[in-house]
């Protein structure tokens, strides 16, 4: 099973979400940014690296938020979400087509990747 680490980056009561770009698996779907956990890497190291690569942002990982397991056609993934805060950077799009800051109650308006849906639901309950 592939483990993917996602960042729940909050600012002014809103969460950062990203839309997968054309040409990627699940193109057009929204997700919480992050990526695959590499061997020998902690979840915190993974998130800092992935967010820097994907969005050119520096973050501080604050703590565990929640997780889900989803069985895609390509195989199962375990999505583990951590709360994080932005320290700096430019939020440049390197692998996504769009990013948006969204209030948790507005998340239902977006078409999320299936593995992200339980995280969306937990955020909406807060």
The SS-based structural class is: alpha+beta
CATH superfamily: Nucleoside Triphosphate Pyrophosphohydrolase
Mean pLDDT: 92
Helix-strand pattern = EEEEHEEEH
Q: Gap between N and C termini, in Å?
A: 29 Å
Low-confidence stretches: none
Shape: globular
Main beta sheet: 7 strands, mixed
Number of domains: 1
CATH architecture: Alpha-Beta Complex
Kindly state the number of beta strands.
7
Into which percentage range does the β-strand content fall?
over 45%
CA-based gyration radius: 13 Å
CATH classification class: Alpha Beta
Helix content: 10-25%
CATH topology: Nucleoside Triphosphate Pyrophosphohydrolase
Tally of individual helices: 2
Q: What labels describe this entry?
A:
126 residues; Nucleoside Triphosphate Pyrophosphohydrolase; alpha+beta
């Amino acid at each position: 099973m592939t483990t993917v680490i996602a960042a729940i980056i909050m600012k002014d009561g809103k969460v950062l979400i990203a839309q997968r770009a054309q040409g990627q698996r699940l193109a057009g779907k929204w997700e919480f940014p992050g990526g695959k956990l590499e061997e020998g890497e902690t979840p915190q190291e993974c998130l800092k690296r992935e967010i820097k690569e994907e969005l050119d942002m520096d973050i501080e990982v604050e703590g565990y938020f929640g997780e889900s397991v989803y069985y895609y056609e390509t195989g199962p993934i375990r999505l583990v979400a951590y709360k994080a805060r932005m320290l700096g950077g430019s939020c440049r799009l390197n692998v996504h087509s769009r990013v948006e800051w969204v209030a948790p109650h507005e998340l239902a308006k977006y078409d999320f990747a299936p593995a992200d849906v339980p995280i969306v639901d937990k955020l909406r309950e807060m």
